[in-house]
Structures are given as structure tokens and as C-alpha cells.
Amino acid sequence: MDQHEPESGQLPPAQADPEEFADELNDVSDAPLTGEMVSFTGTLASMTHRDAMNYVEIHGGRASVTVNNSTTLLVIGEEGWPLEENGQASLKVQQAAQRIADGQSLRIIAESDLLQILGLDERHDEIQRSHTPAMLSRLLELPVGTIRRWARIGLIRPVRRVCRLPYFDYREVTGAKRLASLLDQGVPASTLERSLSELGKTLNSDGRSLAQLNLLVQDNTVVVRDAVGMLLPGTGQRLLDFDSATQLRVYRGKDSDTDCVEAEQMTAEPQEVLSFQQNDLTQSGRTMAEWNAEEWFNEGCRQAEDGELESAINSLRNSLSLIGIHRQSLHLDLLTSEQTPAAQPDPADINFHLADALYRSGRTEAAVERYHCAIESAPDFVEAWTQLGCLQAELGNHEIAEQSLAAALQIHPGNPDALLHFALLLDKTRRAEQAATYWKQYLRHDSRGPWAEHARERLGLADPAVHAVLTTEPG
User: Fold this and answer.
1) What is the count of structural domains for the chain?
2) Domain check: are 135 and 263 in the same one?
3) Are residues 165 and 83 in the same domain?
């Protein structure tokens, strides 16, 4: 399952080899950083600060650990936002912004921009690479349920879906994780709002980070009702008190699909504050006995995310029951009614979440059956096939597990989760030579996650410096 991790734990970013630097220096015909004094802030996603400084030197520039009168370039790392523990933008960002305002010739760029300047396309592609929920869970040491909850409330958005499997932008998720961590530590949302506004200006951000902050605060604390009406998660129109005088409003632009953000002074009457759970029960003035299948599904997801597994199982089963009743009623009325059928949650999705809740509550056999139900409703549900294979392997049904994982790879050959678990299964059944093929393919999708080093070790390639050679070999 997604929760499994190798004993070696989290793999740090790949370290650069001095001999590799020497080789690259010989290949540099033009020095793109000639005359530049470069400083770094925030955690880099592609390498350590020391390695980055070495790259600057071999490409004609000079590196500095501080921002000073000679600094011409400040690079912001993309392993989350460069925010201090008090929620303020990093000191280097503040210093650079002030020096720019004072007229110093200084640019602030993102890490991926520097990699493009240096021609490090492989490392640039690594940062740009999208990740599945399971990959992010392992890489960021977050429960996979957290990733799914953030996606459900709109905090993170998939860049694409392949056979129902969502892929997320790594930088967007690491930014959300950093904000969530600071909020959990008690940093005021108003402080983070000001810091993100400052960072957004320096990087020409589209405001997505401010929208993430607003969603995080709503997810963790309250929703509100003002003179206009209730403002709910996921609606695209939200108001939230960051302090006594200022609110952050997120609205949907008329000519764009992008969330826009603005801060505004509020003079309205005091607002009524409701918790999410209270709101779920009272927003429509209806009792739980009157809920429809969609409401029970959302409640089941919320309960599962909060670890209320028995309640989640009951809620998800209620959702399935109501769908069955609705379909029977629809069939009876089909010839006499012209009414458009009401929207219903997808039974495949309900069964998938129900299977996960059953597995986490210790009922593996029941979870297997629910994954089968999800696949019956949606034969191309690649995540369900993958999870089914994982459970069957856990039960010792290796032959059936292999068939399920093979089905997942036939549907989506580049699915890194299925590649990982298929390689593990082949190793477990003493077929190391066959497993090597899948370890190689897996490393094309994940070169620095906690399983990447394990894959290299299985291939007899413990040195990460040879990764580039490995990933260009035919599958």
C-alpha cells in the first residue's frame, strides 16, 4: 500500500560529484553567469546550496552566502516557499527587495530559471515533473490522505489525469506543505498573507499561493456567514478574517480560470462563525436523514481523512445505497419523466474510498472486494488496479497480485506506483532480473524519492551520479 517505505528512509537531494563538475566545466563554451554575483535563499529542490554555488563558479559567476552591494542575482529555491519560522519572508528576500527599490541592479529568479540558464535540462525537468499522490506522500512524508484532502478542497490541483490517476505539480504541493506547517505552529495567517504578497511581487506570481493560504485556513478553522450569505470551501468565493480589520477575498475572474486574490478592508457587521462540522449539518436546514448520495460521499471522505474510519465506512455505504435507490427510481420514471437526472457521485470513486477505509481499519479481504467493485464500475481505474495488486501481495496471493499490477501497467504503462510495486513483487518472488527492467523504468519518474536509492541499490548502482546514464537506457 501507499504507506510502505524503505528502511533507509527519506533520500536527500542528489549530491554533485567534484569530477562531474570538472567534466561539465570542459563542456561549457559560453559562461552564462559571467559578471554575476549569485546568492541563494530557501531550500533548493535540485541540489544543495553548496553544489549550486559550485555550478555558479564553473559557469563564470561568483557565489555569495549573503545579499550585498555586489549581488546581481538572488535565486529562490523551489522546495517550498522561503519563509522563516515566524512566517516572514526570508531575510535575503527582504534585503534584495529593498536593494531593488533603492536602484541596485539585482534580479530575483526561481531555481528552475537558473537551471535553464545553466542548461541543466535534466534537473530542470526533475523539478517540473509531476507526481502521483502516493509519490508525494513518500517524498514529502505526508499521509496520502492529506494529499487527497488538499486536492478535494482545491488547495492543490492536478496538472493532468491519466485513467483517473491525478498528477500534481511538486512545487505547488511543497508550497502548501510549508504554509500548513507554519499555520500549525501558530503563525498568524495575516503574517503569511503579507509575506506571500511580497514574494509574489518579486517572482511575478499569479496569486495561487495566497489562494492556497486562504483554503488552508478555512480547512483548519472556520467558515463564516456575513450579510451576503454563507461562504463555503470549494465555491470559488470565500471570505475569512485574517485579523480584526482585514479579510482576504478569493474570487473567480470573469475572463480567466485562475483564482484572483485581493485584500480589502471590511466594514460589515460582525460575522457569525461556524465550524465545518456544524456547517455541514446546518447549512441547508436539513437533517442527516435527508442527505443525498453526494453529501454522504463528501462526509465519508472527510471522516476517512480525519481517521474516523467506522463512521466513514457507514457514510460511504449510505452513499452507495442512495445511488441504488435513485437508479431504481429513475428506471421506473424514465418513460414518464423529462426531468434531468440529479448529479450523483461516481460509484467507482465511492468504492475506492470505501476500500481504503476498510483496509485502514484492518479488513483487508473486504477492501479487496471493494477494489473489485470499483474496477467493475470503471475498468480503466488504474489506482484501483494498483492498490488491488498491493493488497493481494500483502495477503500472499502473488500470482493474482502480479495479474492486477500487470493490468495497471497495461492501462497506464508509465504509472510510477504500479512500476514500483511490480518491481517489489518480482524481487520478493526472486525474479531480480525481471525486476531490474521495472526499477529502471521507475527511476525515470522518480530520481530522488525514498524508493529511488533502493532502486539504484537493486540495480547495483548505488552512486546517484550515474543516474543519467541509467535513465537513458532502453526499457
Assistant:
1) 4
2) yes
3) no
The answer to whether residues 252 and 153 belong to one domain is: yes
pLDDT tens by residue, 24-51: 444 444 689 999 999 999 988 888 899 9
Q: What's the CA gap between 1 and 394, in Å, rounded?
A: 9
Q: Which of 94, 127, 160 is the last residue of a domain?
A: 127
The domain boundary residue, chosen from 239, 254, 276: 276
The residue that leads in pLDDT, 389 or 213, is: 389
CA distances from 70 to 38, 75, 470 (A): 9, 15, 41
Q: Give tens-digit pLDDT for 219-264.
A: 654 343 334 443 443 333 333 333 333 333 333 333 333 333 333 3
Share of the chain above pLDDT 70, in %: 72
pLDDT tens by residue, 98-131? 999 999 999 999 898 899 898 887 777 777 789 9
Q: Is residue 52 part of a domain?
A: yes
Residue 6 located in a structural domain: no
Domain-embedded: residue 18: no
Domain carrying residue 56: 31-127
Burial of 236 (0-12, 13-18, 19+ CB in 10 A): exposed
Is 148 a member of any domain?
yes
- 134 lies in the same domain as 271: yes
